[in-house]
């Protein structure tokens, strides 16, 4: 999908990109191999070729494409940089910030699930983000990331963030994470099925008051929030790609 993308080039929007595809320019290499581009003057073609060549030179750098792509189109980077992607969700003492406490940060890289817990190893979390290209969340742009930035003032995030809440909404899947998951065949374990964020806050409070069963349940809940993001992101990418190719040719 990345090499099929042209909308990161100056002056190229969705309609122009779709026209390029219909004209047979389905990859950057196709564009560079063409002697001319119907509808464009020689100077404009020269400018675009320079942009495509620069894109090829940076194809391993997500930080190059992130700022150049519209936020709504950054999902296109997922497959290319998936091997260095991670999925994140946090638990807190409430929903109003600043001032709330981060209690658990869950981070899954597609292979290993790590959980950083307040009072145990939470301060190790920033190091876990090193060498990542993509960060995938659900509503993270509105909650998780602002909260983490407030809690860790020097936090360095991966160059690209994909917020599944808005990617899925653009595909017609609106609502909260727990409402959307069953539509993709995702079902949670009985001990946390039906649990929501408010109950997660109460679990942490119970843990602080000495309930030894509360923290394991909270960690299971957080783990489901995080692990399920990979399945959702994978399927959302496929749906978005199929829709885009179907519309654009």
How many beta-strand runs? 5
The CATH topology of the largest domain is given as Nucleotidyltransferase, domain 5
Q: Report the helical percentage.
A: 40-55%
**CATH C-level category of the largest domain:** Alpha Beta
Task: Provide tags for this entry.
elongated; 2 domains; DNA polymerase, domain 1; 5-stranded mixed beta sheet; 11% strand; 249 residues; Nucleotidyltransferase, domain 5; 11 helices; alpha/beta
Notes on the protein architecture:
The structure is a single chain. The protein is of the alpha/beta class. The protein folds into two domains: 2-59, Orthogonal Bundle (DNA polymerase, domain 1), CATH 1.10.150.20; 79-240, Ribonuclease H-like superfamily/Ribonuclease H (Nucleotidyltransferase, domain 5). Helices cover 44% and strands 11% of the residues. Strand 2 and strand 3 (113-117) form a beta hairpin. The longest helix is centred in the C-terminal third of the chain and has 35 residues, at 214-248. The protein is elongated and about 75 Å long. The two termini are 13 Å apart. 31% of the residues are buried. The mean pLDDT is 93.
């Amino acid at each position: 999908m990345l090499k099929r993308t042209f909308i990161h080039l100056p002056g190229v929007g969705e309609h122009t990109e779709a026209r390029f595809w219909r004209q047979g320019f389905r990859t950057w290499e196709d564009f560079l191999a063409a002697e001319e581009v119907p509808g464009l003057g020689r100077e404009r073609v020269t400018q675009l070729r320079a942009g495509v060549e620069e894109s090829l030179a940076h194809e391993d750098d997500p930080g190059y494409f992130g700022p150049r792509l519209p936020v709504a189109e950054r999902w296109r980077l997922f497959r290319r940089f998936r091997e260095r992607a991670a999925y994140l969700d946090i638990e807190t003492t409430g929903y109003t910030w600043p001032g709330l406490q981060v209690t658990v940060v869950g981070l899954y890289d597609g292979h290993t699930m790590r959980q950083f817990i307040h009072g145990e190893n939470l301060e190790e979390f920033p190091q876990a983000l090193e060498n990542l290209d993509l960060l995938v969340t659900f509503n993270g742009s509105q909650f998780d990331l602002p909260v983490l930035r407030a809690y860790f003032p020097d936090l360095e995030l991966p160059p690209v963030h994909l917020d599944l809440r808005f990617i899925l909404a653009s595909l017609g899947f609106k609502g909260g994470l727990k409402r959307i998951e069953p539509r993709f065949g995702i079902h949670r374990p009985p001990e946390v099925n039906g649990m929501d964020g408010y109950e997660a806050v109460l679990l942490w409070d119970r843990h602080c008051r000495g309930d030894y069963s509360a923290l394991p349940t909270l960690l299971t809940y957080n783990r489901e929030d995080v692990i399920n993001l990979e399945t959702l992101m994978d399927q959302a990418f496929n749906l978005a790609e199929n829709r885009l190719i179907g519309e654009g040719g």
